[in-house]
Design brief:
Radius of gyration: 26 Å
Number of domains: 2
Distance between the termini: 72 Å
Shape: elongated
Strand content: under 5%
Structural class: mainly alpha
Helix content: 55-70%
Number of strands: 2
Length: 132
């Protein structure tokens, strides 16, 4: 019961340490070294198993703590970013040169279905139209 008390205190004091501590507590319970109940349930074979209650709690904890996991384990900068293809941007520029300013603004909008290259091309065409 002491682990839950410590986790509760850490929740309010330091969320990063709480996240690690609670995940570690659930993992220790999953492999059978910690139990909160009178009866222990395990699923496995030949004495090696996992506690399904702790497995469910661990999955629920990670599902609910997605934002905290993203803060704790951020992706490295640039891993998901792809470099913009300059030839593709020029191709889009030639396609977009006859579009109206309203259409170009819709393409530039972050919620649009267009690729990053298309958005960049639309921005460039908007710049040239606004300068003229």
């Amino acid at each position: 019961m002491g682990c839950l008390t410590i986790a509760t205190i850490l929740y309010f004091a330091n969320r990063k340490v709480y996240f690690l501590f609670y995940a570690l507590t659930l993992t220790i319970g999953l492999i059978g070294f910690l139990d909160f109940y009178i009866t222990t349930y395990t699923v496995g074979f030949a004495g090696v198993g996992v506690n399904p209650i702790f497995l469910g709690l661990l999955m629920l904890f990670f599902a609910v703590s997605k934002k905290q996991m993203d803060k704790f384990l951020p992706e490295k900068a640039g891993t998901n970013e792809r470099t913009l293809n300059e030839n593709l941007i020029k191709s889009f520029e030639s396609k977009f040169k006859d579009k109206t300013i309203l259409e170009l603004n819709e393409i530039v909008d972050g919620n649009s279905k267009f690729t990053n290259e298309a958005r960049e091309a639309a921005k460039r065409v908007l710049k040239t139209k606004n300068l003229l």
